[in-house]
Structure prediction request, 273 residues.
Amino acid sequence: MQKNRLEAFSDGVLSVSLRVIVLCLGCLAACWAAVPAPVYVVAHRGAKSIAPENTIAAFDAAAAVGGDYMELDVRPTRDGELILMHDGTVDRTTNGHGAVAELTLAEIRTLDAGGGQKVPTFREALLWGKKRGVRIDVDHKAGTVEKIAGVIRETGMIEHVVIEGDRANLKRFSELLPGVDTMAKVNSVAEIGEVCQMLHTTVIRLSIKQLEQPEAVRAVRACGARVSVTILGRTDTYENMRRVVELGAQLIETDYPDILVKVRTELKAVPAH
Prediction:
């Protein structure tokens, strides 16, 4: 009888212990799920809200507030030099006029890109990033993949850039620069696995609508890539920054890197680098 009572008592203790363990594991899982993934601040053309876009001054300003990546736009001049310019012409961002493809580097160097800044070359921007320990987000606007890849290789920045562009070009970049990070866009959640496999991509750019689908974020993570999103214009707000971080975005492109740095600090999503 005494033995039966001891056995019953032991069974009861074991049952309670198991319930406590399960409860604790559940709490830990909930806590882990609530912690956002590390967030990298991608400064859109530098801190263009502070300094002229696509200039060294804009990059300096973004780096000063904690930006991790400088997003920049690359296209060639008439004499084949790669420079930073979003538009196909110099009209909007400088005091000059004309198509970039019809002007030489020397001619573009005479222009004021705002506040006395000169239009940087792609090589200068990469060397700036190398010196400052800042990654570069290369938006491939125009120019041959081979020439752009050559400059990335020559400056020793293969492991410190992520490249945006169409899939055919990204595939070629990955062939020329083994191990380079590429950032592809997808048209649907179903396409994510296929794109990851085809490009061996490390970053997938989702739209806000796609980011709102948990299965999209899971699919990106399942193929070992990171989730990127762009929030510009009316969506580039403190509230929306918090929202996209909580939805799972990891690389976030913004015109306000200082605000995003504050948000990720508040949400304990600062990367270890």
Notes: Residues 20-33 have pLDDT under 50 and may be disordered. The first helix runs from residue 2 to 34. Residues 43 and 133 are 15 Å apart (CA to CA). The chain has two domains: 1-34, 37-266.
